[in-house]
Amino acid sequence: MSDIRLEGVTRRYGTVAAADNVDLAVAQGEFVTILGPSGSGKTTLLSLIAGLNRPTAGRIFIGGRDVTEATAQERNIGLVFQSYALFPHMTVLENVLFPLGVRKITGAPARARALEALKLVRLEGLQDRRPSQLSGGQQQRVALARAIVFKPDILLLDEPLGALDRKLREDLQVELKQLQRTLGVTTLLVTHDQEEALSLSDRIMVLNHGKTQQVAAPTEAYLRPANRFVAEFLGIANFVGLDGGRTGVVRPERVRLGPVGVDGGRSARVVEAVYLGQMVRYHLALEGGEGAPIVAAAPFVGKAWQAGEPVAVSWDAADIWPVA
Amino acid sequence: MTSSPWTRRLLAVIGIFGLVFLTVPILIVIPMSFSSAKALTFPPPGFSLRWYEAFFGDPRWMEAMATSAGVAVVSSLLALVLGGLAAYGLRRGSFAGRDWAEGNFMAPLIVPTIIVAIALYLGLAKIGLLGSLLGLVVAHTILNVPLVMMVMGVAIREFDPRIEQVAWSLGASWRTTVWKVMLPNLAPSVFAAWIFAFIGSFDEVIVTSFIAGKYETVPKKMFNELVLEVNPIITAVATLLIGLTVLALAAITIVLARAGKLKQTLA
Ligand SMILES: Nc1ncnc2c1ncn2[C@@H]1O[C@H](COP(=O)(O)OP(=O)(O)O)[C@@H](O)[C@H]1O
Ligand SMILES: [Mg+2]
Hints:
CATH superfamily of the largest domain in chain A: P-loop containing nucleotide triphosphate hydrolases
Number of domains of chain A: 2
Structural class of chain B: mainly alpha
Structural class of chain A: alpha+beta
Largest sheet of chain A: 6 strands, mixed
Number of helices of chain A: 8
CATH architecture of the largest domain in chain B: Orthogonal Bundle
Radius of gyration of chain A: 24 Å
Oligomer: heterodimer
Strand order of the largest sheet of chain A: 6-7-8-3-9-10
Shape of chain B: globular
Distance between the termini of chain A: 39 Å
CATH superfamily of the largest domain in chain B: MetI-like
Largest interface: A-B, 27 and 17 residues
Number of strands of chain A: 18
Distance between the termini of chain B: 16 Å
CATH architecture of the largest domain in chain A: 3-Layer(aba) Sandwich
Largest sheet of chain B: none
Bound molecules: adenosine-5'-diphosphate, magnesium ion
CATH class of the largest domain in chain A: Alpha Beta
Strand content of chain B: under 5%
Radius of gyration of chain B: 22 Å
Number of helices of chain B: 12
Number of domains of chain B: 2
Strand content of chain A: 25-35%
Order of helices and strands of chain A: EEEHEEEHHHEHEHEEHHEEEEEEEE
C-alpha cells in the first residue's frame, strides 16, 4: 500500500494535451475518483500511472518511488477495465492465479490465496467456470479478485461498472467501497458518472480537457464548486447573478418554494413537476422571463406543486456560492 | 450496394461460368490420373494406378517431393514467426512510417510475381545464394510473409489490447504475455496462417523456376515436364496436389469454425 503523487504530468498527442500539467496527491489508503466527461483525459491519466503510456512531461511517484520511467510490470498495480479483460482461455481460478504464478507463488499457498480473493468478491464456488459462462457483474468480480490477489500497492479502476445495468452497478458500488475499506488499498477510480463519484470517494478530482478543475471532498465539490464547469458537471446548478456582474450557484435542494404573497420571494410559474420517488424536481420560469429556468428539488410529502401553478421562489444568501 | 435485378443476374451467370471454367479442368484431371491408357485420353479407357506407381517409383520425383516438403516446412515456419511478429508490431504499435512498413511487407502479394522473381534473382545472386536451398527457403519465406500477416493481422486486431495490458500490469513480461495469453487465444489463426504459408510454398512455381538452379520442386518439375512432353504422371501429381490443398483448406475451415473465427478471417 502506497500513496500516489503526480507532479505536472502532461501527455500530448500532436497539439492536443490529453493530460495537461496535472498535479495530484492521493494519500495511502485513500479512495479518489477522477471524474470528467468523455474525452477529458481520464483513461490517459490512469494509463500513465499504470505505466501503459509515458508522459510527455512531469513525474509520477508511487509510495515515494519515482516510477516515471518504470515499466508496467515493475509498478505492482492492480488494474481493472470496463471491458473486464479476463483471459478467455483460463478458468476463473486460473485467471486469479495468473499474477501469483508470475511472482513464482504456486501450489497450495497460491490456491489458498486465490480462493480467499474470490471469497472477498463473493464468487465462491465459481472458480472452475470460464469467463464466457459468467454474467457481466461476475466477470467484473473476477477481474477485481485478479487485481487484488497479489496485494498491489495501488488499485486503478477505469469505469469498472460502466458496462453494468443500474441496479447491479449500485450494488457493486457498495461492495467495492467495502472491499476497498477492508483492504485499505490506495484506490483511483475513473468515472463519468457523478453519482458514482459522489457516493464512492473520499475525494473527487474533476477533469476537463486534460486539466484539473478541482480536487475536493464530494460535499465540498458539490456545494463549493471551483468554477462553472464543476458546478454544472456535479449535479444540477442554478446560476444567479450577483453584485458586480459575478455569478453564483444555488443547488436545487436549497431553493424554497411557497405560496405566492405569503413570505416574499420572487414569483414564478411551475413549468414542469417531475416525480422522482423520494423527491419532486420542479422546473420553474421566473416572472419577467429573464435568466435561465430555475430547478428546485423538494422531498415528496404527499402534496406537490402542479404544472402551471404560481409559486414564490426564494433562497438564503448563504446558500449561494460564487463561481465566477 | 444496390443494383438492379438484371445486373445481379448477369453477375451470377458470369460467376457460375467462371467457376465452371476454373473447376472443370481440375475435375477432368482426377479421372485421367487413374487412366490405364499410355497417353492422355479422355474419357479414360480403364482404371489403373499405373501413373501413381510410376510417380512413387521415380527417384527424381521423390527427390522433388522431398525438396518441396522440406522447403515448405522450413519457409512456412519462418514466415509464421516473422509475419506474426510483423503483424503484432503493425497492429499494436504506433510509430512513424507504419503504413510504409506495412506496404513494404505486403508488396510481394501485390506486385506481379514475375517482378518479385526477377528482384529475388538479382538479390540472391548478389549475396551468393542463387541456386541454393537456403536461397529457395529465403525466397519462399518472403513470398509467404504477407499471407501470414493478413491472417494474423485480423486475429490480433480482434483481440482486446486491454487483455495484454492487464497481463503486463499483473507482472507478466512481454514474452510471457505472448506465450501464455495471446497465443492460446490466437491458436486457430496461427494454424490457419501456417497452412496458408505451407501451401503457398508447396504450390509456388514462378519464383522457384527462376532461382532454384539445379533443385527441383514438385511444381517446377511438373512445369518442366509439360514443356518437354505431356506425361500422364503429371495428372497423378496434380491429383495429389489437389488432394493436399483440399485437405488443408478443410482443416483451416474446421479449426476456424470451431473457434468461431471463420467469418472474420475470410472477410
Ligand atoms: N493514442 C492516442 N492518440 C491520439 N489521441 C489520443 C490517444 N489516446 C487518447 N487520445 C485523445 O486524448 C483525449 C483524452 O482521451 P481519454 O483519456 O481516452 O479520455 P476519457 O477516458 O476521459 O474518455 C481524447 O481527445 C482522445 O482523443
Ligand atoms: Mg476512458
